[in-house]
Automatic annotation (TrEMBL):
Belongs to the ABC transporter superfamily. This is ABC transporter ATP-binding protein. Keywords: ATP-binding, Nucleotide-binding, Transport. Pfam families: ABC_tran. Residues 15-244 form the ABC transporter domain.
Length: 267
């Protein structure tokens, strides 16, 4: 099931990495070399063991860190190579400002990017609506559940209408039912908003459920170990989660992931 690279003269890609490596100042070789194309509008998951460089790959794509070698390119009519306001980033922790209400938390990227304030309120309303939090604009983070905080974090990522959404294990800390619900809501957002999504997770089940393509990374330094195209049709829902097809994909992806854990302490 290994896939050839999806690059091509049609340039239908949003993210392209070529020969990308990252070695930190500490000498840790975190990543690569990595070659990766993500098509516009595609939902891709990076799956791999702890420490294999998944977050590093996201940070390089976001321009939050520079590669040690190789090239990271973003292509979209609206995306400048370093136009980070066109990228939305969702971290594992919601990282909300506790002293600010939901509306002001979601407003933050608009302020940081110095985007015109004329339509700011409408953008914030739209983003809150997209994540189902329209009623909670005036609430403070301490008044919200873990799932709701993550929805605020997602709204904050969406408020600039990014072309590319980078998500770093956003639901890992949530209970299973909340996680499933957010999985479903994320899929419907992706279908409606046509964003390119690169989603990092440890979970085989989550990666198969959400993605059009799952990229299994090797142990550090992370490279592509295997790729799986999850061909199951959209929209996916609970029926898919309990289907034999889903179970078969999960088995296949798990099999490819196992070698990445071999040799890891506690594996
Ligand atoms: N700023 C940094 N300086 C030095 N080493 C780092 C830095 N960031 C990450 N590393 C190291 O690089 C390797 C890859 O880290 P990274 O966070 O990218 O992995 P990951 O696959 O996202 O891990 P996890 O799933 O546990 O979040 C790890 O060994 C980590 O300790």
């Amino acid at each position: 099931m290994a896939e050839p690279a999806l690059s091509g003269p049609d340039a239908g890609w949003a993210v392209r990495l070529r020969g990308v490596t990252k070695t930190y100042d500490s000498g840790v070789m975190a990543l690569g070399p990595l070659d990766l194309d993500v098509r516009r509008g595609e939902f891709v998951s990076l799956l791999g063991p702890s420490g294999c460089g998944k977050s590093t790959a996201l940070r390089l794509i976001a321009g939050l860190a520079a590669p040690s070698a190789g090239v990271v390119e973003l292509v979209h009519p609206d995306v400048e190579p370093r136009g980070s306001h066109r990228i939305g980033f969702v971290f594992q922790e919601p990282t909300l400002m506790p002293w600010a209400n939901v509306r002001d938390n979601v407003r933050l990227p608009l302020k940081l990017a110095r985007l015109p304030t004329t339509d700011a309120e409408a953008r914030i309303d739209a983003a809150l609506d997209q994540v189902g939090l329209a009623e909670f604009a005036a609430a403070y983070p301490r008044e919200l559940s873990g799932g709701m905080k993550m929805r605020v974090s997602l709204a904050r990522a969406l408020v600039t209408d990014p072309d590319i959404l980078l998500m770093d294990e956003p639901f890992a800390a949530l209970d299973e039912i909340t996680r499933f619900r957010l999985n479903n809501d994320l899929l419907s957002l992706w279908r409606n908003l046509h964003k390119t999504v690169v989603f990092v997770t440890h979970s085989v089940f989550e990666s198969v459920y959400l993605s059009q393509r799952v990229i299994v990374m090797t142990a550090r330094p992370g490279r592509i170990g295997a790729e799986f195209r999850i061909t199951s049709p959209e929209p996916r829902g609970e029926e898919f989660r309990t289907s034999a097809e889903y179970a078969a994909f999960c088995r296949e992806v798990s099999g490819a992931l196992a070698p990445s854990y071999a040799g890891q302490a506690g594996a």
